[in-house]
Each structure stands twice: as C-alpha cells, then as structure tokens.
Amino acid sequence: MLSDLTDNSAPSASRTTDTFGRPLRDLRISLTDRCNFRCTYCMPRHLFGSEHLFLPRAALLDFDEIERLARLAAGLGVSKLRLTGGEPLLRRELDVLIGRLAALDGIDDICLTTNGSLLTGKRARELKAAGVNRVTLSLDAIDDDVFKAINDVGFPASKVLNAIDNAKAAGLGPVKVNCVIQRGVNEHQILPMVEQFRHSDVVLRFIEFMDVGTSNGWRMEEVVTAREIVDTVRTRHAISRLPATTPGETANRWTFDDGAGEVGIIASVSQPFCGGCTRARLSAIGELYTCLFGVHGRDIRGPMRAGATDAELSDLLAGIWQRRDDRYSEIRGEQTAERQGDADGRVEMSYIGG
Ligand code: SF4
Questions:
Q1: Which member of 29, 51, 83, 230 lies 3.0 to 4.6 Å from 112 by CB, making a disulfide possible if both were Cys?
Q2: What's the predicted TM-score (pTM) here?
Q3: Counting Cβ atoms within 10 Å, is residue 126 exposed (0-12), middle (13-18) or buried (19+)?
Q4: What is the pLDDT of residue 344?
C-alpha cells in the first residue's frame, strides 16, 4: 500500500542522517494545539479568540499511536523526547502516556515544556513518578503587569514561580525557565529575571524573539540579540561563556563568575544553530515537521490509520529525515532585511510546540 509513499530504496547506515549529515536524535511531540494562555508572540488573542477552531479530539493521535511512533523513532536513533503543545498538561491521563514512553528501549530522556499554570506539587510528583526527567517552564517577566500583558489571560508570575518550586521539589531538574525577549515589550525585564534566578539552581534561558508561524507580527527591529542580552547582564554581573553540554544544544551557556549559577541564550536569529539541529517535531495530529519554521508537515497518521506496517512507517520516517535540508535560521540571516521573516505560511508554534 505504501509503495507510492516511500521512495528511499536502500535502507543504509545513514538512514537517520539528513542531507547535511545531521542525525535524528530528538523528537518533540505536540500533545494538543490547545493552550490556556494567549501569549502575544505565540497565540495572539485576535487570531486565537473564542471563534478559533482547535483540533477535534478524534483527530489527535491517541496514546497507542504516539507510543508506536516514538518506538519507531527510537529505532532510528531518537533518544530524547520532549512533550509540548499548546499546553501539554491540558492532555488528560498524561501520566499513562509518559509511563509508556519511558518504558521504550532507546529513550533515555523525557522532558516537558509547560507554562506552569497546571503544575501543582501533586502534578509535579506524578509526572516525575511517570517518567519525566526534566521540565522547562515559560516565564517572560517577573513584573506581574508585564507578564499578564504577555500571557493575555491575567496569569500572575508568582504562580509560575510556585510551579518552578514544585518542579524542583519533585526532582524534575535541572529546571529551566524560558523567557522570550521582545524589544518594546519586556527587555527591561532581563536584569530582574537574572536577579530572580541567580543562586537558584534554575537555568534561566533568554530566547530571541522569533518569526515562528505567521501570527506574531514579527519584525527584525523587535529582536533583542544575544549580544545585547549579554551586554545588559554584564552591566551588573560578570559572566563567562561555557561549552555546550550536548551536540546540537540550542542555548549558548554562560556562567556567573561569582558562582551564582548559569544563564543561557537561545539565539536562533542572530546566531543560528541549524548546523547541529537534530530535532524533528510531531504535530498532535501526526504530521512530521523537520524544522520549527516548516511550512508543511508530512502526514504519518494517514498511513498509520490505513494499516501501514512498522517497517513501512519506519521507512517513511527515515526517508523524510534523509531528505531533510532545513536550515531556515541560516537562510533568514542570508536574506535582505526587507525579506527577513516574510510570512510564507510557516506552521504556528502552538501547533508543533516550539
Ligand atoms: S531553524 Fe530549523 S533547522 Fe535551524 S535549528 Fe531551527 S528547527 Fe533546526
């Protein structure tokens, strides 16, 4: 049935390396396109309002399907799974799924990215017990008014700080906190965020504002670059660059010279890291994207629900990765300022989970 779908004739040792020799190592799995926040750089309310149609439940991959695809991906070299959304904690019985994923051969790291709104102490302990190793939370400001303006649902920063404490107490660390910096919105929060997390064992990572999707009105002028962020931090604290811990790591790592911990910067715009990108993304309805800035995902759910065998699905996944030549952030950098960020139907972050 799949002969017309898979054209990678000879399975070879390079089954899981793309056209630039990048191995497939990380699979990010979006569990839902729904979220209880309306962050302006991701799900702006004017586009994701009460009229917005989210994916119907029947369209979502069920746990059997997610487990099967994760198992097949592990067979191709994937060792790290990141569970995302939308907001993944909105997906019911998540612990059951996590337990099944944690039992898969070859998967040795399960992380979860959350806005923290549902991460109570009890929930954090349950996620740990089910098999989550680490969590990353999003917090774009310490100032409540600024944070509420960004999440656009009036959610206070203090509650995310509680969730961070819950994650630490449950042993879901090292806990990382992502903070998207957008000029004119929250660049004045860089130093308050640094002060909040110095001496805390939490790794704060600043993220350059990115042109993900087509909804956030991205403009290059609103990008506060890694260079600017480092310079801002250095107005108060001496920091030194650290080496990457893993190949393909997204964040530039910096340490406070006075021993107060680490801070990271994800500089997709000013310092692209496509060369080491080993990440594939699975949408909640089973489309495989090979780049965060992808326009089209390849449908895996269709062949799977049509009765494809494990071998056929594995060939399909391997073939997609083998033909991969994505390096959007590098290309963006090569474009003229006028062309940078031209919206061309890129998939929304809330759809494939950052
Ligand atoms: S732009 Fe695409 S290829 Fe480059 S690092 Fe991001 S996801 Fe990977």
A1: 83
A2: 0.92
A3: middle
A4: 67
